[in-house]
Amino acid sequence: MFEIVEKRVLAEGIYLTKVRAPRIARSAKPGQFIIVRADEKGERVPLTIADYDAEQGTVTMVTQALGVSTRKIVAKEPGEAFADIAGPLGRPSEFVAEPIEELRKKRFVFIAGGVGTAPVYPQVKWLAEQGIKPDVIIGAKTKDMLIYTEEMERVAGNVYIATDDGSVGFHGLVTALLEKLIGEGHEYDCCVAIGPMIMMKFVTLTARKYQLPCIVSLNALMVDGTGMCGACRVTIAGKTKFTCVDGPEFNAYDVDFDEAMRRQGMYRTQEQRALAIARERAEGHKCNIGLDK
Amino acid sequence: MANKIPRVPVREQDPAIRATNFEEVCYGYNLEEASLEATRCLHCKNPRCVAACPVNIRIPDFIAHIAQGDVASAAAVIAEDSSLPSICGRVCPQESQCEGACIVGIKGEPVAIGKMERFVGDWQLDNPLSVPQITPNGHKVAIVGSGPAGLACASDLARIGYEVTVFEALHEVGGVLVYGIPEFRLPKSKIVAREIDKIRQLGVRFETDVIVGRTVTIDSLLDEEGFEAVFIGSGAGLPRFMGIEGENLNGVLSANEFLTRANLMRAYDEQYDTPIYVGRKVVVVGGGNVAMDAVRTAKRLGAEATIVYRRSEKELPARVEEVHHAKEEGIEFRMLTNPTRVLGDDKGWVTGLNCVQMELGEPDESGRRSPVEVAGSDFAIECDVVVMALGTSPNPLIASTTESLATSRRGCIVADEEGRTSRSGVFAGGDTVTGAATVILAMGAGRKAALAIDEYVKSL
Questions:
Q1: What is the pLDDT of residues A245-281, one digit of tens each?
Q2: CATH class of the domain at B140-236+394-459
Q3: Helical H runs in B367-418?
Q4: Could you give the residue range(s) of every CATH 3.40.50.80 domain in chain A?
Q5: Whether the complex's predicted ipTM surpasses the cut of 0.90
Q6: pLDDT tens-digit profile of B286-296?
Q7: What is the rounded (10 degree) CA torsion for A246, A250, A254, A259?
Q8: B→A interface, C-beta within 8 Å
C-alpha cells in the first residue's frame, strides 16, 4: 500500500497528491510516469510525476478528476493509501543523458498546457539543478485553472502565462504566445510541449514553422504500462511504437497526432457510461431493472 | 492387469450455459472417478509417458497410488517433480506430452493423466501438508517475475533455507497464470492464489509493483540490496502484431490487452472499473491457446466470436481440449484464412477484416506444411473488434538495463540448461529464455535453476 502524506486542491477538479513510494522516488527521472490503482477494483491509471524526493521517499502527482478512476484517486485523503503505484515507467527525457556542456548551450522553451504543467515542472527543475534556466509558457483556460506557476517561477528563467479568456497574462493560445516571443527576438533551440494532445499537435505545427526542434510527451491509454498490452500504440515516423516503453516522449515532428487522438477515445463510451452510473448512484438513484448491477 | 474400460468422462459445465459465464468449464474428477480411471493404466515397464513429460513426473507410480485410494502418496510422488500440479493438470498440452505417448492411446483413448494430476493437485490444496521445518541458511536470492518459472524457483530455494524475495511488475502475483489464462480455464482465487499461498507459507516474500529495469535493476538488487543471486523468470510478455494496414484502428487489440483487461483487471465483472470493448462481432487472429482464450472470452462477453487461422485445423497449436471446448461453445473457425488488411470507417473504427484464402504447400522448417496464398481469393469478414493473438516475445527491459547479459537474436536471454546466463550470479529460465512456451517447461526451468543457484551460492 502506498500511503498519502499530503493532498491539496490546485484548481477546480485538479488535485496534488503526495504519496510514500520510496523505490519510485529513488529511481524517478524527468519525463517518466507512474501507474496508480486506487483500490482493489480500480483501473490502472497512468499519471505523470509532478515531483519526487528520494530522501523523503515521496512522489507527487497531479490529477485532474475527469472519469470514475481519476475521481477515485482524488477522493483519497492523507492517511489513506493507494492499492498500487508502479513506476517509474517510460524512458527519461532525452536531455537527462546529454553531456551537461552541450545542454548548457541549448536554449529551451517548455510549453505546458493545463494539467500538463505538472510533468513540465520536474524537467525544468532538473535543468535548473544543472544551472540551466529554460523559459516556460504555461497555458490554461482561465486564471483559476492555472497550476504550478509559483513552483515554476522558482526554477525557470522566464515564465509566461497565456489564458484563453485573457484573465491573466497573454490573451490567447500558447502557440500565439510562442510566436509572439519568437517575433520579439527570443531564440530557442529546443521546445518541449506537454499538455492536451490537441495543444501538442498545434505547438508542433508552430514549431515546424520556425524549424524549432520539438519534443512532446504523449498520454496514450494503457493497461500495464510495461510493454505488455500495446493499448498505447502510436505511429511515430510511420512505425508503430508503444508509448509506455518507447516513449512517452517523442520527436514531435514524427507523431501521428490525429491517430493518437482517435485512439485516446477507444473506451470513451464505456467511460462516460461508468461516470453517468457513478453520478446517479451518488445522487441516490437505484436502478430498478438492474442495469447498474 | 489393466482395466479395459473406456476413458472415464470428466464432468463439464454445459456448453450453452458456460458460454455466458466465467466459471470453470471442467469440474474435474472426484475420488471415485479418478480411482476408476487409474485402473486403466498399464504400468508399462518403460513408461513412455514419463519420458514425454517435460519434468518426468513418475506418472504410473502416482496413478498406482490413486488406484489404491491413497491420494496423499500420489501427491508426494508428483511433488518430487512438480510444484504446481493443480495448474499443470489444467493447462498442460497433455495430448502432445504424457497422454500423447500413452500406449493405451494407440488403440483407444489414452489414460487421463492430466485429469488425474489435477485431481491430486486440488486434493493437496484442500489437504495441505504441514509446512516443513526450514532452517534458514542466511543467503538471499531475488526472483524476477511471479509466473510459473519464478514460483517454482522460489519454492525450491525456500525449502532449502534461502531467504527469497519475488519481485512482480504487476499488482497481482502469478504472471501469465493471472493476466493471461482466463478464469474459466484456471480459477484465480480457487487455484492460483492458493498455490501461491503454499509458497508464501514457505517464507517467500512477494513484492508487487516492482518493475525490474525501472523501479530497480538487476545490478541494484545484487549490489545494493544484498541479494547473492538473481533468477529472471520475466516471461514473454511483448505482443506481436502483423504489420498490416489498419492495425492501429480503434478496435484492434493484442490478445494480451484483451485478456489482461478481462483476467487481471476483471473487466468482465461490472464491479471493477476497467473497461473492455467487444462490440457485436470479434475476430481473433491466431490458432494457439491464447487465441482460444481470447475468442472464448469474447464469446462470454456477448459477442459473436470467430477464429481466423492461416493453416488448417490439424496445425492449430492450441491444446486439443481448448479447441474442442471452443467449438462446443459456438466459436466459428475459419481455417486457411490469412488477414491482409483491417478495414475501418471514416471515424477510424474497425468495420471488418480483409482476408485471403490459403492452401497448404510444402513443409517448412518446423515440419508443418506452410500456407500459400490462393491468388485472387480476397474476401472480407465483417467485425468490429480484431484481436491479434500471434505470439509474444520477451520484454527487452531487463536485458537492456543489465550490462553484459547476453541475449539471442530473438531477444531471449541466453542461458544454459541449468539457467546460467552470461553474468555470474544471474540466472534465467522459462519463456524469457525459450520464447513463449508452456507452464510446465517454465516450471521445470525454474526448478533446475534453483539447483544451480544453490550450487553457485555455496561456491561463493
A1: 999 999 999 999 999 999 998 888 888 888 888 888 7
A2: alpha beta
A3: 397-401
A4: 94-217
A5: yes
A6: 999 999 999 99
A7: 70
A8: 169-171, 179, 208-211, 214-216, 237-239, 241, 243, 247-248, 250-251, 253-254, 256-257, 260-261, 265-266, 270-277, 347-348, 395, 397
